[in-house]
Amino acid sequence: MIFSANLPTSKETTTILTINNVGAQENTPVPKFKVKRKTLVVLVGATGVGKTDISIALAKKLGAPIISTDSRQVFRGMTIGTAQPTAEQLSAVPHYFIADREPTAEYNAGIFEKEALALLDKLFLTHDYVVAVGGSGLYINALCYGFDNLPIADIALRERLSTMNLAELQEELQRLDAQYFAEVDKNNKVRLMRALEVCLISGRPYSELRHIKHTKRAFDIVTIGLVMPRGELYERINRRVDIMIAEGLEAEARALYPFKHLNALQTVGYREMFDYFDGKTSFEDAVELIKRNSRRYAKRQLTWFRKNADIEWVAKKDAERGDFFSEKFAEKDF
Fold first, then answer.
1. Which fold has domain 13-147+219-229+302-328?
2. Which residue did the predictor score with more confidence, 26 or 273?
């Protein structure tokens, strides 16, 4: 769950959208944001909804730098497959956690939390606002709430789990934690194994331990979610995959192929290309699978985020209005 701090009781409102189920929307009035302390503005939403452009527009309005909460954009050499911001976009506003380490580097939500909080301490010395943008729910939770004190990994157990195939891992996790199994990427062996480690070491469901304790932050947090009709979102995802292919996703994936075993490469777009390289599927089928799996990933993201009643859901078309954020942050002198 993502925290939206200190929302006022002001009667001033603006129309936003609240998700009741995937693809369903209704108009709902909510208070404008009244910001007094140093504030992290978190922008979330499904892949392909247009978070990057909106985050840059918002950051310019607020005079804020941007922190990426994407678990994959942080790696070098993965520009196309992770839809990293373009050179022009990166030059428009200072960005952090974009292509700043190799795919071989150890990186997880816990590491991100520590690095991001240290960075925020510095950024808030000279900025009233910082914008965080991305769709990796676990990383956003780590930044806003603190990463729960989960059991330390057991090397022997991890080695045993590594000998299990994907179907066996799926079956075992479904048995031990049906709730987390319903929302996890079922093709991501690393996440399946980590959840199983926690279940087997603690004797408790991973989904239960993830939400036990939240850490209060020294800054306010306002969370905005971008939403659009499901059909429109899926069309955007399909078009974006076509653009990735045209920009050279195949060549990028070939360069990364020697590292396909790494956690960083267990990612939609690369996995399907690796199967094509291994002769398991045709190029045409690989492209269609990328589109399908990206749409499924978007649905999982919305399932994750819609559990949080604190997210202020905003229609993408409204967020694109030039005066929209001036209205939302009513006390900010734009």
1. Rossmann fold (3.40.50)
2. 273
Strands of the sheet with 220-227, listed across from one edge: 95-96, 66-68, 129-133, 39-44, 220-227, 312-315
End-to-end CA distance of the chain: 30
Q: In terms of pLDDT, which residue wins out, 214 or 287?
A: 287
Q: Where are the domains of the chain?
A: 13-147+219-229+302-328, 155-209
Task: State whether residue 178 is helix, strand or coil.
Answer: helix
263: tokens are: 């956690």
- Per-residue pLDDT averaged across 239-253, rounded? 98
CA distance 290 to 173: 25
Mean pLDDT lowest among 134-143, 202-211, 325-334:
325-334
Read off the tokens for 194.
């980590």
* Tokens 């240290």, residue located: 118
Q: How would residue 331 be classed by pLDDT, with cut points 50, 70 and 90?
A: low
Handedness of CA 262, 206, 301, 226 (dihedral sign): negative
E-assigned strand segments in 178-332: 220-227, 312-315
